[in-house]
């Protein structure tokens, strides 16, 4: 039972490793350090092999991060520069940044208000409006939730002859009706950035059923140099360090346990938050979420910023980073390049409404039961007052 009026400081993000986790990593690092092979070597290969099994995919390649993974993938798909790629405005800025890095232009689309996936109707409108110029659609599984409408998106992409790509930066271990995240589109890109569900500090991974895409990325990530040492395409250094790979391998080997723990924590929040007025919990029918984020939605009329401020001031509870307090079409840089990002002044009512109402609660392996209880209790008290 929580003591009355006792304030607890709960971290909004933490990486908690056990001694045996650290031993596993150090053991691998020792091997790397002694090997004289410090990049794109056997440990990275092991990481790719273990993760692709976990993600239920045939092929995988590790890259320096998810952003460069998306850019390399767009290039590997041989999408001509200046083509248009559609992505949600309800995503992290790296999604559009990666499209720009690959030399393409961006058109934002709105999301579904219930499952947070790309809105197929809005996507189709844009496919029509920019017919012939759009070459790919990138969908994002926000917080780990996969929209059941991904099948509709897939049909649309086939109809218009464009690639569907899954930005799985949030979706390690997520499933839709028993199908892995990343298995509907032509290819998927995962992030292993520090805050992600599985992480190694910095890292990314591209998966696909099509080995040709993966082999092209292998060349692109090495400044366009093929196995014979000849530079055959444009490329850059998107390679994966063996030193990071030791940590990434630990994450991949322990993926089931880590994601299982995230699910257990989310289920506990579900129970603790039940019945609190003024909030609802994001949940998507048919999706088994990997819970990169635990997202609650405030009722209409409750200010997100005031909620967060009061939670911090009164109870010292600092929510985790939101998804997202500023949408991509509202970001100053994206607004400043109308010839590259074509519709920043468009209408995105569902994304805007969601952005105004979303709050993410701290969720990471190592979060204690009493900390979750304290957070839920603080929200209950706060909502009693609003
Ligand atoms: C949806 C989404 N896509 C892509 C990325 C880029 O990941 P990375 O930092 O590994 O480049 C992020 C990371 O914040 C993300 O949240």
Please characterize this protein's 3D structure:
The protein contains 13 helices and 13 strands. The protein is an alpha/beta fold and 386 residues long. The protein folds into two domains: 235 residues, 3-Layer(aba) Sandwich (Aspartate Aminotransferase, domain 2), CATH 3.40.640.10; 131 residues, Aspartate Aminotransferase, domain 1 (Alpha-Beta Complex). The strands form three sheets. Strands 1-9-8-5-4-2-3 form a seven-stranded mixed beta sheet, with helices on both faces. Helix 1 packs antiparallel against helix 8, helix 2 runs parallel beside helix 8 and helix 5 packs parallel to helix 6. It is globular. The two termini are 25 Å apart. The mean pLDDT is 97. Bound molecules: pyridoxal-5'-phosphate (PLP). Pyridoxal-5'-phosphate (PLP) binds next to helix 3 and helix 4.
Q: Mind sketching the topology for me?
A:
Layout: H1 19-35, H2 42-54, E1 59-63, H3 66-76, E2 84-88, H4 94-101, E3 105-109, H5 120-129, E4 134-140, H6 150-160, E5 163-167, E6 175-176, E7 179-180, E8 187-191, E9 204-208, H7 211-220, H8 242-253, H9 255-273, E10 279-281, E11 287-288, E12 294-298, H10 304-315, H11 332-335, H12 349-357, E13 358-361, H13 369-385
Parallel strand pairs: 2-3, 2-4, 4-5, 5-8
Antiparallel strand pairs: 1-9, 6-7, 6-11, 8-9, 10-12, 12-13
This protein binds pyridoxal-5'-phosphate.
Question: Tags for this entry?
Answer:
386 residues, alpha/beta, Aspartate Aminotransferase, domain 2, Aspartate Aminotransferase, domain 1, seven-stranded mixed sheet, three-stranded antiparallel sheet, binds pyridoxal-5'-phosphate
